[in-house]
């Protein structure tokens, strides 16, 4: 599942356990609950000057949806239904991160594949372990189509069409150094510990700016309109913008 800790004004969400951190319905619900708690606690403390780091225990950041659970239902039709349920449940998790009223940093301390890759780039920043771990979209290799919102997210976060082609049409496995050179991640680090510490330092620097969280979330959604629409978030109304402006002057 996951745990939610706090270092000063930085929330640290950790995918826990020794496995691959497969995104089953229960894991997705656990992560969404942790994000909701971070949002609630930050609001209760004034709603400004917080940040979130997401990381994981062990050699995987996340190996994507729980395909073993999907096929354990005993029939191909049940497997398809279960897989689609995970696709549907993960979409609002991406929306939660897009709306979270604070900067977000993924500390990718191991392999991030398929939905695990999507989880990482749903954050504002990505710090990645350089000595071990890859980014990989496995859908082509296992014969699964991409959910439309996956493609919208990748197009919004990966600006070079040739890099996007490598990921989605070649199934290329990309290490941290190459991912940084290609603009997929922000920085590569020597070890898991160094990756988490770098992510926390970045989070502390961003939290110290004491930005109004709801304004930050509003600007993020506006900067990623294609993803916002794909995950079902409505466009902000003029009334909502005016309310944010009024609140920011308090």
TrEMBL record:
GO biological process: fatty acid beta-oxidation
GO cellular component, one term: peroxisome
Keyword Lipid metabolism: yes
Principal EC category: isomerase
Sample GO molecular function, one term: delta(3)-delta(2)-enoyl-CoA isomerase activity
Catalysis performed (reactions): a (3Z)-enoyl-CoA = a 4-saturated (2E)-enoyl-CoA; a (3E)-enoyl-CoA = a 4-saturated (2E)-enoyl-CoA
Lineage top rank: taxon: Eukaryota
Pathway connected to this protein: Lipid metabolism; fatty acid beta-oxidation
UniProt keyword Transit peptide, yes or no: no
Entry keywords, A to Z: Lipid metabolism
EC number: 5.3.3.8
PANTHER family tied to this protein: ENOYL-COA HYDRATASE-RELATED (PTHR11941), ENOYL-COA HYDRATASE_ISOMERASE FAMILY PROTEIN (PTHR11941:SF75)
Family in the record: Belongs to the enoyl-CoA hydratase/isomerase family.
Protein name: Delta(3)-Delta(2)-enoyl-CoA isomerase
Species of the source: Platanthera zijinensis
